Amino acid sequence: MLTVYFPAQAFATNCYVLATGRGQECVVVDPGIGVVDQLREVLTEYDLKPTAVLLTHGHVDHVYSVTPVCGGELGAYIHGDDRYRLEDPLKLLQPGMLAMFEQQFGASATWKEPEKIVEVNDQQRLSLAGLDLTVHHAPGHTEGSVMFSLDTVPDGLPDEVGVTSTLLSGDVLFSGSIGRTDLPGGSHDAMQRSLKNVVLPMPDDRLVLPGHGPGTTVAAERAANPFLQGL
Description:
Layout: E1 2-7, E2 14-19, E3 25-29, H1 36-46, E4 49-54, H2 60-63, H3 66-70, E5 75-79, H4 95-105, E6 117-120, E7 125-128, E8 131-137, E9 146-150, E10 165-170, E11 173-174, E12 177-178, H5 188-199, E13 206-210, E14 216-217, H6 218-224
Parallel strand pairs: 3-4, 4-5, 5-6, 10-13
Antiparallel strand pairs: 1-2, 2-3, 7-8, 8-9, 9-10, 11-12, 13-14
């Protein structure tokens, strides 16, 4: 699986591009703030054509560029419980956060809802750009947080990594940490249930590509992530 990712200009949100290979259709995952130009470069370099945009949740740092990336053709895939966030995620920002965001970019933030929104559900199977993905609803960071798993791995991984599948974990699971639960729509109790019932049953040999920070594996997080201990 061709896998390219890069951090957005704000909050270091990872934007992922997945395809079966060069010159193919692709899916874009979590196009955050200021990613449009770099994403265009990636698509040109690998001769890729986007066919869908997947959103792990509706926070603005993961969805800010979804509308320009989708245009009027591509679907923005999001869990139904976070669908309301696409009406205007800027309104859900704390005033101080919005001011910091606008100061960094030197202009007022604007928002336009995507024209085509596709709601996904837990355990739904998606076949997009030649890739088969499974949706895992894992609330806690937001009500509609999801993770996407694939029974394949990125090209070029060293054999010693020892993984056979991939998880796009959004802000549910990070290397050594988890997503915060103190923002509107977050829930500590829901996150605990998601970690226990959704994350921990996953196979150890699954690569984890998180919404922020470096990749990891389920095995590594099971062994050392303090937020998974004792669940």
